[in-house]
Amino acid sequence: MSKNDKKITFTKAEQISQVDDILTGSHEVGNKRIKLTTMIINTVINKEVVLKYKNKTTNLEYNFETSNTVTNSDVRGYVQSYKVFLGVDTLKEWDSSTDMGKERMRILKDSFWTALPAIKENCLVTNKSGKQFTGSKNSEIFIDGDFAKKYSDKNPKNLTMISMRFSDLKRASQNYYKDKSTNLSTNETSGTDNSFVSGIKKMTRTINASKSELVLKKEQAGTEQAVRNLEIACTQWSLEFNKIKQSVMTPEQVAKYKKAI
Questions:
Q1: 124-133: per-residue pLDDT in tens?
Q2: For residue 63, which of 20, 77, 232, 238 sits 20 to 30 Å off, Cα-Cα?
């Protein structure tokens, strides 16, 4: 195995590890998300994988490199091809028909929606030391200043390079999709899969229904810990959501928002 092949094999294993860590909510999830997204961007830009898929209904092939629009269906196709590249497409725990497989698919789709504009614009840069990551525990990446200035509020001083967290890059990507003059747009109402919301609603109904079994004192081995893990994940999600929400508010709006909480 060549040195380059060994490097690619290591990169694949690392990306799989990032997905699993995000899935379990272990370690710093925000750091894991930006690292996974950055690795996807680098993998595609370095042409270690070609993002393309064939639509089973129309039998037409779609290649991201030559596309200037993207839909949820496209992202699912690109993610599926990426799963083949990672070598996980035949693994049961990655099968989208299973709960864990669906969650891994959601994690990859979230990173892909965030990564695709950065791939089109090749806007990831390095500092003078050749490093892509910065911030506490490498929770931020360096982004080209022009991209940041145009699609975010992170570069008011017109710097040639700024750093972004995952949430910052995700918001910039969403703004990129909305700009009809870019190399990539979407007619989707949201760059997320509605199955995420559907899954939450289904889980809420399941938990509410389970309360009646608690009254009947039915055995629920492992349920308590599972619910506690869900509670932690929901708290972390809410904290990140509020952080993103407040980042686009004026100081007056933030003060009013915090007062209302």
A1: 999 999 999 9
A2: 20
What is the distance of C-alpha 178 from the center of its chain?
Answer: 18
User: CA 53, 107, 161 angle in degrees (round to 5)?
Assistant: 90
Residue-wise pLDDT tens digits, 48-95: 999 999 988 888 899 999 999 999 999 999 999 999 999 999 999 999
Query: Is 210 within the bounds of a domain?
Result: no
Total tally of structural domains belonging to the chain: 1
Question: What's the domain range around 73?
Answer: 3-193
51: CB partners within 8 A, 6+ apart: 44, 63, 64, 65, 78, 81, 82
- Which single residue is written with the structure tokens 């500092």? 127
The alpha carbon dihedral of 101, 237, 41, 77 has a sign of: positive
Decide if 27 is inside a domain: yes
Residue 131, domain member (yes or no): yes
Q: Name the token pair of 83.
A: 């799963």
pLDDT for res 222: 76
